[in-house]
Amino acid sequence: MFAGLPLAHALWRRGQKVHLANLSFSSVALSDAPQLAPALYEVRPETSGLDGYFPEQALARFLAEEKLPSTVYTFPRTGVRQLLRAYQVLVEQLKLDAIVLVDGGTDLLMFGDEAGLGTPVEDMTSLAAVGQLHIAHRHVACIGFGVDAYHGVCHSHFLENVAALERDGAYHGAFSVSRHTEEGALYLRAVAHAAAAHEARESIVNGSIAAAVQGQFGDVPMTARTAESELYINPLMGIYFTFDLMGVCKRNQYVRELVDAPSVVHVEAIIQDHHAHAQRRPRRLIPH
Fold this sequence. Notes:
Blueprint: H1 5-13, E1 20-23, E2 35-37, E3 40-43, H2 55-65, E4 72-75, H3 80-94, E5 98-104, H4 121-130, E6 137-143, H5 155-168, E7 171-176, H6 182-197, H7 204-213, E8 239-244, H8 245-251, H9 264-277
Parallel strand pairs: 1-4, 5-6
Antiparallel strand pairs: 2-3, 3-4, 6-8, 7-8
Helix pairs in contact: 1-6, 2-6, 3-4, 4-9, 6-7
């Protein structure tokens, strides 16, 4: 959601219609957000009724202050079957011709035989759902190279996977977010706004990306949640890597098993079973 904001703002400036959506960890069903489908809610700046962690509301209010489109469509954590139906509703109601899945981090690019998969449940649920949609354009973007190391991702494997997708013709290229652009400046303001609204649960991923975009480096003090961890903030965290979504699906070794998964529990079990039996590539350091 926040990781896709620079892309959205660039398209808004070009006069394109862009809608933001998020597969959420918040308890959106406890709010007064209108429910558009069993796994789809419409969060607006005036949405209320949920105290505590609610980044979708924080983003909606920030966008309203910036006089930008401020509805944030929100999916609760659910299975592929329900998420697919929610996306179908959005495609029909909003007349969408393109969807870009944006991952804060790079574990969406793990194919299934890597040493570590990171935290793939939400990413793979989204990939499996959007991969079944009938829509003209479907893409994937990743930003935050390195932030998934804490969850066991080997970033040499990420680079190897990017090379494989390039051979397939599914890699679109990379570009950086600069704080000197309107998009980069907006992103930094949005992350700071959300952090102020969630002082106990600031986003480590977006905080790391924002720190990198501002030129910080190394073990940068961030929040109490990272006090016991050694961070490696670096300029590569501010780079978008972009791909064809179906090309990523074709390389993924288990996404086909997820297409009808009815719950988060089923998605997680399928991923864990695949990884347990996969012939994994050995972990390796980037030799530079």
